[in-house]
Amino acid sequence: MMPSGNALEKMTYNQEIKALLLSCDLPVADLQQDNRVCFFGIRHEGSLLGVIGVEVCGDFGLLRSLAIASSHRNKGLGKRLVSFAEKWAMQVELKALYLLTTEADSFFGRLGYERWPRSAAPSRITETPQFSTLCPDAAIFMHKGLGISPRSNESVQ
Q1: What pLDDT is attached to residue 27?
Q2: What is the pLDDT of residue 105?
């Protein structure tokens, strides 16, 4: 078991993130260093164990690219990354997070995300490459509304 003090950090898209996403069969075609996706990663002893991204789409965020190294799955890292991304999204005053998944709907459901019809997606979300072309039509669309972030919470800058 790893120590609970693994460092969570904001990251710029790079080859290390790309390699982890590809190892988890997640799309990378639309990702580059200067795009709208803010990445957050978790490391242990210098190795990237997991990553998550939030693509900012106006007042909304598209939660994407949750990837955990295969040797570190089922240790709570995914939950920590989602929680961190949600806190960041609240601090930058996003109203809601959306996501598309082909196999993690149960995981996200346990974290408060609800299934929504794709037709209910805000236009800012439907305009993203992930929604419009990269994820299959069979992907499950999910939503979670965000409250106002208390300013006294730990900073996730």
Answers
A1: 87
A2: 94
Q: Are strands 96-101 and 60-68 parallel, antiparallel or unpaired?
A: parallel
Scan for tokens 């799955």, then name that residue: 73
Q: Please give the pLDDT value at position 154.
A: 42
Using one digit for the tens of pLDDT, what is the confidence trace for 92-118?
999 999 999 988 999 999 999 999 999
In terms of Cα–Cα distance, which of 6, 15, 12, 22 is closest to 53? 12
Give the DSSP H/E element, type plus range, for residue 44. Answer: strand 37-44
Top-tier CATH class for 7-145 = alpha beta
Looking at the whole model, is its pTM more than 0.85?
yes
**What are the backbone dihedrals phi and psi of residue 106, each rounded to the nearest 5 degrees, phi first?**
-65, -45
> What pLDDT is stored for residue 134 in this prediction?
79
Residue 32: count other Cβ atoms within 10 Å of its Cβ.
Answer: 10
Residues 6+ apart with CB under 8 A from 146: 86, 89, 90, 94, 95, 96, 97
Q: Where are the beta strands (DSSP E) in 109-148?
A: 114-116, 140-145
Residue 102 to residue 135: CA distance in whole angstroms: 8
